[in-house]
Amino acid sequence: MSSIKDILYVKFSVPDLTKQDQFLQDFGFETRSSENLLMARGTDTSQYVYLAELGEPAFIGIGFEASSLADLEALAKRENAALEEVQLPGEGCKIALEDPDGNIVEVAFGIDPAAKHEVVPRPAFNAGTKRLRLGERVKLSPPKNLVKRLGHCVLNVVDFRDSERWYKDRFGLITSDEIYIESEENVLGAFLRCDRGKDYVDHHTLFLVGAGESGFNHAAFELEDWDSLMIGHDRLKQGEYEHRWGVGKHILGSQVFDYWRDPHGFSLEHFTDGDLFNVDSGSHVAPLDDLLNVLWGPQGHP
Question: pTM of the prediction?
Answer without folding.
Answer: 0.96
